[in-house]
Amino acid sequence: MTTKLSSKYRSYNLEELAQRLDRDYYDHIQALCINAISLANRIALEQDHPSMILYSDIAAKTIHKINIQVLKRKKEILPYILDLHTKKTEGHNCNNCSGMCHVGHTEHFLSLKASHKDILQYLDELEKESLPLHRHMEYPPAYKVLRNEMKEIDDMLTETFYLEELFLVPKVFEAQKAINA
Fold this sequence. Notes:
Layout: H1 3-10, H2 14-46, H3 50-89, H4 105-129, H5 141-178
Helix pairs in contact: 2-3, 2-5, 3-4, 3-5, 4-5
């Protein structure tokens, strides 16, 4: 990742960072996952070679798990982050509230950190599942496209993990601390 990209994300506040990660990464990874699963399913139906069928099945399952992580971010973590940003901006203090704002600050933070462990596992699975390309073999076009999609998913997950660990997690922790969560 370039320094320019990294510095751009560093300058965002928590809300802007969450929205940019959603738009620049989560949406893109989700689209790649949907396309890759479709390709893997097509390969499984069209190929006779057992190793291609096995590979496409394993790839589809791993990509499905990745897609679930992205959906979880979009449906649970992003809304929490936006709510946290609002509370911080409004000067909320969890020590003084009547408990009506209980949003599970610790659970959300731990969920985000746990998902990073899962992402590392998925990156490892993607690497292990890639069949080596041999020059003397002819591969179906769908397989080559699937390999490219999986590589792009791997790259996007790596960048996402880096940006979340380097910028998002510290900003979430800082916001939680600011509101005495």
